[in-house]
Every structure is written in C-alpha cells, then in structure tokens.
C-alpha cells in the first residue's frame, strides 16, 4: 500500500490484530497513520501517529482525522490490545474538529467505523457533525460500495467497497464565498487500469519470500468423519496429549477458512492458509449448564463464528443431552472466544481462567503433521 501511493490512512481493526506490534510494522513499512480516537501507551507510536493532520492541496487547506471502530475490542483479544485503548469516538472527533476549524477550509474524516453497523458508525457520528467544517467521510470496514455516495446532514459519505475492486475519485472545490462543493465517482479497478511494474515486482518479491514455506511438504493423512479442518485439528489436539482425556474442542469456524488441498501431501504454507488466524488457542473450564447454553446459541450466530463441539479423544460430536449441568468440562477454544468475543457473549460475564496452549491452529496442526512424516 505504501508503493501504491497512499499518503495517509486510518487504523482498521485488522491493523490491530497484533496490537501495537502491528502498528510498528506498518510504520516501519512506510505507512503514515492518523488516529483521533486511540490512546497509545508506546511513546514512539505517540510521536509517529498524530491525532490529526493539516495538509495543503491545490490551495485548499484540509484538516484530516482518522477513527477506528470500537468493534475491534470484540475482534482482537485483550492481551493483544495491551497498550492500545479507545477514547469516546464522538467526543474525540468533536474535540479535534473544534481545534482544527480555525485553521482549515474543510475537514475530511478517514473512517474505519463502518457506514452503518451495530456499533458506533458513520451514520451515528454524522448528526453530531452537522454544521461543522467536516464535509467528507472516506469510509471503510463494512465493505459496501456506496454509489452514488449519500449526503447526510450536508456531509458526503464515500465508501469504495472492499479488496481494491474500486477506488473513489473525489474532488473538493471551494467557491468564492468559501463554501465547499464535492464531486465523487466510483472507479472500477479493472483491466483498463495500466499495470504497475513496481507493484508487480513487489508482489513477485513477496511470493519469493513465501516459497520456502510452500516447498516444505509433509504427507496429509486421510481425513474422514466430518469437516476436514476440524478432524485434523481434533487429531492434533489428541496427539499433543496434554489436554484433559475428556476435553472438548470448540473452535470457531472463523479460524478454519480456506480449503485443505485434495492431495496426498500438504505444504506449510497451505496449512497456514487453511488456518489463517494468528490468535492462540486456550483451555477453559466451563460448567455443563453454561456449555449447553453456549452450544445452543451457535445456531443464532453467523455461520463462521459458530463452532461444532467435538470430543477430542474420539472426534464424536458433543450431544447436549449427555452433558451434566453440575459438571465442569475442559474446553479448547480461541483466546478471543474465551473472552466473550465473536458473539460468544455468554462467556463474557463468567470468570473463566484461560490456560494458553502457546500455539495457534496452524502451529498445532503443522506440528502434528510433521510428527507423522
């Protein structure tokens, strides 16, 4: 993205999947970030990431703010977010707008709140900005391509969608009376766009660094008796042997996104791709009544947040009728789910002490497959 020519970016939830470490890596890679609603304990990050910028562009003086969705707190484990905290988004933006307004012609908000979400979003923020110098929101997070871009309370909300399929071309003009007019157009990034040789070279270089991981291969055992990802993960937990003899694996499908190869062998890179999340697994003790309620709630979650519970010892699906309300069960799950994230809110109000397994899904599975080779 640095090579693509981005001058400034807000911080999104994926930029925080390794917490402050992610931000240091992005800055080291040449990114310039702006954050109006985050508090960073790291002094170097405080210096590198300003709460606002003032920029000159063709005679127009712009104030630029950047905001991050508080949904991050439900998408990233608390341990990872150590040293990164949120201020009240609306208050922090209004304070920055008041400070910038005497010095700029207009203010642009780089938003990773999402246009309209269950959390605090662009649609909820805009009414508080009515009559201010904020004229434009360049948004993300919710992936919709807004075409035409809506104007709400005099503020144009632009969102180009996801995965670089489109970009927005936005033109700001200040007339003789000082008011700002905005024209925007969604541009598809299709075959009509000329290829960039520097970007192609950077992609080739990145692929070359990953090649050793793709060259490292081990035999892939026959996988039968359910979802292949879950069968392999359960087998790896059973082989590892330091979980309870009657442990239950209940790992959200979000951590098992991509297909395993239909072949007799698998590479290290393919395992990392099949189990893409860096978040570690943990063991927690859950009483039977809560476990029954948690299993019952899975049907109401989005399918990729839910998890099929299986007994680690034999891979058989757990039947709620065989669970004893008064008994405590050892359950293997992701760190985030153990905190009540990803919709697993039933765990949020219970004091559960998670015991880290010191590895994520990919590391667990790859270690198991190498032991078989």
Kindly describe this structure:
With 373 residues, this protein is α/β, with parallel strands linked by helices. It has 2 domains: 13-188, Purple Acid Phosphatase, chain A, domain 2; 210-372, 5'-nucleotidase,  domain 2. The chain is built from 11 helices and 17 strands. Strands 2-3-5-6-8-7 form a 6-stranded mixed β-sheet, with helices on one face. The protein has a 5-stranded mixed β-sheet with strand order 15-12-16-14-17. A two-stranded antiparallel sheet has the order 1-4. A hairpin with a 2-residue loop joins strand 2 (52-57) and strand 3. The two termini are 39 Å apart.
Short précis:
The chain has 373 residues and is an alpha/beta fold.
Strand order of the largest sheet: 2-3-5-6-8-7
The tally of beta strands, per DSSP, is 17
Rounded average pLDDT: 92
State the shape: globular
SSE ordering: HEHEEHEHEHEEEEEHEHEEHEHEEHEH
Counted up, domains total 2
As a percent range, the share of strand residues is 15-25%
Percent helix range = 25-40%
Structural class call reads alpha/beta
Q: And the CATH topology of the largest domain?
A: Purple Acid Phosphatase, chain A, domain 2
Give the name of the CATH superfamily of the largest domain: Metallo-dependent phosphatases
**What is the CATH top level name of the largest domain?**
Alpha Beta
CA-atom Rg in angstroms: 24 Å
Largest sheet: 6 strands, mixed
How many helices? The count is 11
Query: How does CATH name the architecture of the largest domain?
Result: 4-Layer Sandwich
How far apart the termini lie comes to 39 Å
């Amino acid at each position: 993205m640095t090579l693509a020519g981005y001058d400034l970016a807000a911080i999104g939830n994926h930029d925080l999947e390794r917490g402050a470490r992610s931000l240091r890596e992005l800055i080291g890679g040449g990114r310039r970030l702006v954050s109006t609603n985050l508090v960073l304990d790291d002094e170097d990050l405080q210096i590198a990431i300003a709460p606002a910028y003032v920029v000159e562009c063709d005679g127009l003086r712009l104030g630029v703010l950047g905001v991050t969705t508080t949904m991050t707190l439900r998408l990233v484990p608390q341990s990872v977010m150590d040293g990164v905290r949120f201020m009240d988004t609306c208050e922090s933006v209004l304070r920055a707008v008041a400070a910038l307004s005497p010095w700029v012609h207009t203010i642009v908000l780089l938003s990773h709140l999402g246009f309209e979400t269950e959390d605090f979003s662009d649609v909820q923020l805009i009414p508080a900005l009515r009559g201010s110098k904020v004229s434009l929101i360049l948004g993300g997070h919710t992936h919709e391509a807004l075409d035409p871009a809506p104007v709400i309370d005099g503020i144009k909300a632009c969102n180009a969608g996801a995965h670089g399929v489109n970009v927005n071309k936005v033109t700001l003009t200040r007339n003789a009376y000082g008011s700002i007019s905005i024209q925007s157009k969604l541009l598809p990034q299709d075959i009509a766009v000329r290829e960039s040789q520097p970007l192609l070279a950077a992609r080739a270089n990145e692929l070359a660094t990953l090649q050793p991981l793709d060259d490292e291969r081990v035999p892939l055992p026959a996988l039968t008796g359910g979802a292949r990802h879950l069968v392999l993960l359960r087998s790896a937990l059973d082989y590892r042997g330091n979980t309870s003899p009657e442990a239950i694996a209940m790992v959200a499908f979000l951590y098992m996104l991509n297909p395993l190869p239909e072949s007799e062998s698998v590479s290290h890179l393919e395992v990392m791709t099949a189990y893409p999340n860096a978040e570690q697994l943990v063991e927690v003790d859950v009483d039977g009544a809560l476990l029954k309620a948690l299993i019952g709630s899975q049907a109401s979650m989005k399918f990729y947040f839910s998890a099929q519970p299986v007994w680690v010892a034999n891979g058989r699906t757990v039947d709620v009728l065989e669970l004893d309300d008064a008994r405590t069960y050892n359950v293997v799950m992701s760190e985030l789910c153990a905190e009540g994230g990803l919709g697993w809110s039933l765990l949020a109000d219970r004091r559960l002490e998670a015991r880290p397994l010191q590895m994520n899904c990919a590391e667990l599975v790859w270690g198991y497959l190498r032991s078989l080779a």
